[in-house]
């Protein structure tokens, strides 16, 4: 089953529909926005089984993983946004400068208008709908373009959204590169893109032609550092969790490891124990262990096994597109596994002696989306967080910084621009209009050409 491209005419029509709907002011009302979010919430709840099934078909995601990383996150985000959006949507009074005495100033959040949300295949429900929550809360309409690679999820999203929404406020347009090209040619008011760095550049270039603001949630190589003071067994378990979730196909998965040379052997033993605890001695035979999205990505990831010596795992099952969690020592830093985003369960291990080596290595490369540090030493913590720029991350954990609505999530440099989740989703999809209301009780004549000093009462 393939996803068909959508024609240019259909794309144009969908946008025109939303443009006129936005213009009529319907989404300005907070209660209308809430109603849309409540409908979205009920839609997800009512289709939990369908979502679990679609993700099982597309990625062999287990029910538990789908609930934790897709459905649960979205429901929590909607509840959080519904609770706080009244406050976020209020105009905020700001201080008055001495030069402006007598006036009042406000910052007023207003929606951009019709937004485009382009999503990838790895968390195909969460990454399509999480930005929608912010877009709707802030008073926009949204067109979602899901990934064509997760066919069952794309079909499901189209079906359930078109059943609950008539397309004025929310619509799914399915397709691949051709359809995305049609969409990127249209006069959207905001584009929110989640995907790879190369396609992020295509999106930004297209947006620049119309000066459309963008958020880019991209990827890259996220380092994971374990120093000699860390709790090694706990670190190995939490790192293995970050790497095996969705079979490593997570934008913020730890991509490569930096292990202090004194704990390397112990770490490898503990990592192996963690994988056995999660999936038993033969992960390829475990139903709950995810698979790689397609043959092209499977072959790409499998080819990394030639880039060095395998320390753990390494078994493949091309029929079911499954790959063991694998630790390896890369031959050198120039091999593809050390140059490209891995996006799979292969984990290159580098060892280090001094923290400066790690800081130099990471800072000489594109700024990572995530960074994970395992340590019990506060000086190490300060050295890493103080000297390396990265989107976000955890100390003594992996992935968990993404699942709190209180931390804005996003990249920096090549790993992206802008952020979302919780209040930052609302602000991402809002323009903050600055308004100054002048007093008419007096006037300052010195501001005018040939004016006099002093205040004139009116
Ligand atoms: P991708 O960039 O190939 O595709 C993303 C979207 O862009 C899809 O909807 C696809 O149809 C569309 N697209 C693909 N090629 C296009 C082109 N040439 N022109 C226009 N549109 C095009 O990414 P992917 O393979 O779906 O996802 C994996 C990437 O996404 C990884 O790099 C990963 O790190 C990143 N990612 C980032 C985040 C984040 O939150 N920062 C989350 C998930 C994935």
Automatic annotation (TrEMBL):
GO terms for biological process: aldehyde metabolic process. One of its GO terms (cellular component) is cytoplasm. Residues 3-435 form the Aldehyde dehydrogenase domain. InterPro entries: Ald_DH/histidinol_DH (IPR016161), Ald_DH_C (IPR016163), Ald_DH_CS_CYS (IPR016160), Ald_DH_CS_GLU (IPR029510), Ald_DH_N (IPR016162), Aldehyde_DH_dom (IPR015590), Aldehyde_DH_NAD(P) (IPR012394). The active site is at residues 217, 251. Keywords: NAD, Oxidoreductase. Coiled coil: none annotated. It holds the Pfam family Aldedh. Gene3D superfamilies: Aldehyde Dehydrogenase, Chain A, domain 1, Aldehyde Dehydrogenase, Chain A, domain 2. GO terms for molecular function: aldehyde dehydrogenase (NAD+) activity. It comes from the Bacteria. Belongs to the aldehyde dehydrogenase family. This is Aldehyde dehydrogenase.
């Amino acid at each position: 089953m393939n996803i068909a491209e959508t024609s240019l005419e259909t794309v144009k029509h969908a946008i025109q529909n939303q443009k006129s709907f936005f213009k009529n002011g319907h989404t300005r009302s907070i209660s209308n926005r809430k109603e849309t979010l409540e409908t979205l919430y009920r839609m997800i709840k009512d289709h939990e089984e369908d979502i679990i099934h679609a993700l099982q078909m597309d990625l062999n995601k287990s029910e538990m993983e789908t609930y934790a990383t897709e459905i649960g996150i979205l429901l929590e985000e909607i509840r959080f946004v519904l609770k706080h959006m009244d406050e976020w949507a209020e105009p905020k009074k700001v201080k008055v400068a001495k030069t402006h005495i007598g006036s009042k100033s406000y910052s007023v959040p207003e929606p951009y208008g019709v937004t485009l949300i382009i999503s990838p295949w790895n968390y195909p429900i969460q990454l399509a709908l999480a930005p929608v929550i912010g877009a709707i809360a802030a008073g926009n309409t949204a067109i979602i373009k899901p990934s064509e690679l997760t066919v069952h999820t794309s079909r499901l999203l189209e079906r359930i959204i078109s059943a609950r929404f008539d397309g004025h406020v929310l619509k799914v347009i399915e397709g691949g590169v051709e359809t995305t090209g049609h969409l990127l040619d249209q006069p959207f008011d905001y584009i929110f893109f989640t995907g790879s760095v190369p396609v992020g550049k295509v999106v930004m270039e297209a947006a620049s032609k119309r000066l459309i603001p963008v958020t880019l949630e991209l990827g890259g190589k996220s380092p994971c550092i374990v120093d000699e003071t860390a709790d090694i067994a706990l670190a190995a378990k939490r790192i293995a969790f970050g790497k095996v979730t969705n079979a490593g196909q997570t934008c913020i998965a730890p991509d490569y490891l930096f292990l202090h040379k004194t704990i390397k052997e112990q770490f490898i033993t503990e990592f192996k124990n963690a994988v056995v605890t999660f999936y038993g001695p033969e992960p390829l035979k475990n139903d709950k262990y995810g698979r790689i999205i397609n043959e092209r990505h499977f072959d790409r990831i499998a080819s990394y096994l030639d880039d060095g010596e395998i320390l753990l795992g390494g078994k493949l099952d091309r029929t079911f597109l499954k790959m063991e969690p694998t630790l390896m020592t890369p031959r050198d830093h120039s091999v593809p596994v050390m140059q490209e985003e891995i996006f799979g369960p292969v984990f290159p291990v580098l060892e280090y002696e001094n923290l400066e080596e790690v800081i130099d290595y990471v800072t000489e490369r594109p700024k990572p989306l995530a960074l994970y540090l395992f340590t019990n030493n506060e000086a190490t913590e300060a050295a890493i967080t103080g000297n390396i720029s990265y989107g976000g991350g955890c100390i003594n954990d992996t992935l968990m910084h993404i699942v709190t609505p209180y931390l804005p999530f996003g990249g920096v440099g090549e790993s992206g621009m802008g952020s979302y989740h919780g209040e930052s989703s609302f602000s991402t999809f809002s323009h903050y209009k600055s308004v100054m209301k002048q007093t008419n009780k007096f006037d300052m004549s010195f501001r005018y050409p040939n004016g006099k000093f002093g205040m004139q009462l009116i």
